[in-house]
Every structure is written in C-alpha cells, then in structure tokens.
User: What shape does this take?
Amino acid sequence: MDRSTAAAAEVGRINTFFPLMPKLGLRWARSRPWEGKRIAVNAHLTTLTAALLRELTLGGGDWVVCAANVHTTDPSVVALLREQGIEVVHGRDRDNHDRHLATLEHGADLIADVGFELLGTLLERKPEAIEGLHGAVEITQTGINRLRASDVPFGVVNINNGLLKANVENRHGVGEGLWPCVTSITGVHLAGRRVLVIGYGPVGQGLANYARARGASVEVVEIDPVRRLVATYDGFPTPTIEDGIARADICCTVTGHPGCLTVEQLELATTDMLLVNAGHGADEIDVAGLKAAAVSGDQLGPHCVRYRLGAKAPWLTVLGAGNPLNIVLNAGSPEPVLLHFALLGLTLEWLANTKAFRGEVLVPRALEEEAARLALAARGHG
Ligand SMILES: NC(=O)c1ccc[n+]([C@@H]2O[C@H](COP(=O)([O-])OP(=O)(O)OC[C@H]3O[C@@H](n4cnc5c(N)ncnc54)[C@H](O)[C@@H]3O)[C@@H](O)[C@H]2O)c1
Assistant: This one.
C-alpha cells in the first residue's frame, strides 16, 4: 500500500463510523462557498485533518495547508493532500516562521489557524498581506490568549470558547485519548498510579477524570483559585506543584504555557516519573533544560527517552519529546475532533458569506447548534 492510500483508507474508515464530514462535503459541493477564494489552513497534518480537507476542497477555492508541528505531521497525509491538489508546506528543515511565510506567500482571503501562529507571523513579518485578509478563525485557547494580547486589524472567530469545543473535544477527546498513549508507549497501567495533572481547564478536567476512571489516584495543580476550588469540589487534592511532584508517578502538563514544569521542580521527584504533555506546544515541560542538566539518559523506544538528574536520582521519562502526546500518536476517538472540524468548516463558510469585521467574535451559537445536530445524526441519534 503506498503512503497516500494508507491515509485515504483511514479517512474512509473514519467516515464510515461517523459520517459527519461527508454530509458537509455534499453540501459544500453544491453551494461552493469558497469559489474564487484563497484559504490558508495551519493544522496538525493527521488523518483527521485529511478528512476535513477532503470535504472543504469540494466547496471550491484555492487551499494551502501549513504543518502546525513537524512532530505531528503524518507523511501519508502530506502525500494524500498533495494528490488532492492541495499545496502543503511542511518539512523538518524549515522552522515555524519559514513554514508560515511560505504559506502566506500564496496570499489568503481566509485563514484557519491553530495557536495564532500563522496569524502571528502575518502580523509581525508580513503586514503587507493583511489588507487582503477577509477574516480568520482560531481554534485553540493558546491562540485566543495570543489573539487577545495583539491588536488585530482583521476579524477572528473564536471557536475555542464556544460551548462545543471545551465540552466535547477538550474534555472528552483529549481525556479519552491520552492515557492509552501512555500505556501503549510504556506498558504502564494507570490503576493504582499517582497522577499529577498541571492545569485544570477543560482539557485538564477531562484528563483528571479519565485517569481517575482508570483507577489512578489523581492530584491537580492549578494557579487559578476558581478552577482550583472547582477541582476540590470534583474531589481532587490540589497540592503545590512541589508537593505534587514529590508524590507523582506520572505528571501531565496541560496549561498552554511554556515552562510550567521546570528542571528545579523536577529535581524534587522522589520516585521514577513519566512526563507527558497534552497542552499546546512542546515547551510546557522544560525538556531541553532536563536534557542539558541530566547526568545520564537513554532512548527506551519510540517517543520514550529517560533522563536522570543525579547518579541515584529517579528516572524522569519524557514521552513524545514533550509534544502533545495524543496528537503525536493521533490517538483517541476521532469523533470529538471531527465535530470541532465540522464547526471549523461551518465557520469558514459563514466567514465567506459575512461582511468583514474587526477583532474577536465568539462563534455564532447557530453554527454550534448546526454542528451538534449533524453530529447527533452521524451518531445515529438524529
Ligand atoms: N492535546 C490536544 O489534543 C489538545 C486539544 C485541545 C486543547 N489543547 C491545548 O491544551 C491546553 C489547555 O487547554 P484548556 O482548554 O484546558 O485551556 P485553559 O486555558 O482553559 O486551561 C489551562 C489552565 O492551566 C492553568 N495554568 C496556567 N499556567 C499554569 C501553571 N504554571 N501551573 C498550573 N496551572 C496553570 C490556567 O490557570 C488554566 O486554568 C491549551 O494549550 C490548548 O491549546 C490540546
């Protein structure tokens, strides 16, 4: 089987059991909302993104796709997208800015971004291209935080803070998908293990609950007192990070902020510990600092490297090089992500038919209701 065939087969299987995207594809093939438009998409190049783009491109337009992270790029997806006539910008030899600039070279009427990365480069490095931009959509909390810290002269639809993403994808998609990755890489069974979740937003809430459902004893570190209080009512102890680290067998960061787990904090570990990230980038855990400070280390297998900060110190095993592990392994049910992608497509369709505006706008409730109705039908509960 060649590369693109493998990805196409997986897209076909996904669509068989949850036929949400093909329904939208039929609709877009009829209405052609993006005819004559150029659309740039910054995304993790997984088979789920391939399932989305297959349907989006039926709606006309000229599509260019940028790999959001070289570590989450599936080469079979790159091959499939190219076969479908989509321009794909990726490559380990290019840094993020290089990829963004190459993507923006094509010009864009619409942008779908993750992490405000493409839009950030547009603002900082290619301001002359802003004039042609009709509107954009951002899908992550990290991206929304960056958006709010910038003064954007164009409109951005925030689909992260709508009802659907937090309640379905962030909470259930990541929560259900991440822990099996830890087991498949290490063989570690969660039951009876002490798990520390750092960050108690929707993603952290899902991770903590799914870990508890697997029999782990879970603690939560959260800097926001409101969320820390919610965690206590949800039944999780909320120690300081120092106390939590000293007890944990598995530590998972999910804050969206770099450097929330430092080498100084890791020095407090008293027992061997697995380090996992499920947040946005690869820098929530200071993996580079850990590597530099380690007195020894070895690669135990794919996505699994352990380090020691002293000759007799516990082993600290980093999974997925600190990248969001569920995305690296493309794990979990595809349904939550596809629901969210359906909303992304509906938002791009809405943007194409809406007058340009300026600043952040929350995703219209009508689009969320439409996506939810389509997802219910795809689950056989129409
Ligand atoms: N892995 C995936 O598939 C996936 C899917 C969706 C979102 N995400 C990413 O996961 C991250 C979390 O998403 P969310 O929706 O829960 O975001 P969120 O911003 O609502 O929650 C993050 C929480 O972390 C807390 N926090 C920040 N810094 C901290 C620190 N140093 N110590 C302890 N707590 C800290 C914040 O107070 C906040 O409550 C984001 O970066 C998002 O982009 C990943």
In short: Residues 140-142, 166, 170, 174, 198-204, 221-224, 227, 254-257, 260, 278-280, 324, 326-327 surround nicotinamide-adenine-dinucleotide (CB under 6 Å).
